[in-house]
Design a protein that fits this description.
Elements lengths: L1 H5 L24 H11 L10 E7 L5 E9 L9 H10 L4 E7 L9 H17 L3 E8 L2 E4 L7
Parallel strand pairs: 3-4
Antiparallel strand pairs: 1-2, 1-3, 4-5
Length: about 150
């Protein structure tokens, strides 16, 4: 009986099916460009209502492969699982990532929790050779870039 259970395991397959040609994808070379891409894709009904954490997946030419929502939380925060950040990066064939989340209050400055999760994800990225090139806090009125502020 034990040998029969060995034959009943899940099959795992990885696929990558891009829908947009590489030259047609947005290129991000600044925090401002990342903010504009994020703001254009963010659900406007949620940006001032609940916090969401997303990751922008980039190829080696800094072109956007996609944006993946890691979590949706409440009014004052959301949980971020580092494993999900890098699962999306690995499945999306990303060579770099940009972290992003909104502050529904409109406050653009990072909290202690924001600084801690950024440090944790940055370290995991170093180990996996998928650098975190920025973490952007977005609001409808502007953004805060960890890279631009020298916090990353």
């Amino acid at each position: 009986m034990e040998n029969q259970t060995l034959n009943h395991v899940a099959e795992i397959s990885l696929t990558y099916r891009p829908q947009i040609r590489p030259q047609d994808r947005p290129k991000i070379s600044s925090a401002k460009e990342a903010y504009e891409v994020l703001l254009s894709s963010w659900d406007k009904d949620k940006i001032e209502f609940i916090e969401q954490f997303k990751v922008i997946l980039l190829n080696k030419n800094k072109r956007v492969l996609g944006i993946y929502t890691i979590s949706t939380g409440g009014l004052a925060g959301c949980l971020v699982d580092t494993k999900l950040v890098f699962a999306s990066a690995l499945l999306g064939c990303a060579t770099d990532i940009i972290l992003a989340h909104n502050h529904p209050t409109g406050n653009r400055h990072p909290s202690v929790a924001d600084l801690q999760i950024t440090k944790q994800i940055k370290e995991a990225g170093r180990v996996l050779d998928i650098p975190v090139v920025d973490h952007i806090i977005i609001t409808v009125d502007g953004y805060y870039s960890f890279a631009d502020e020298g916090v990353l």
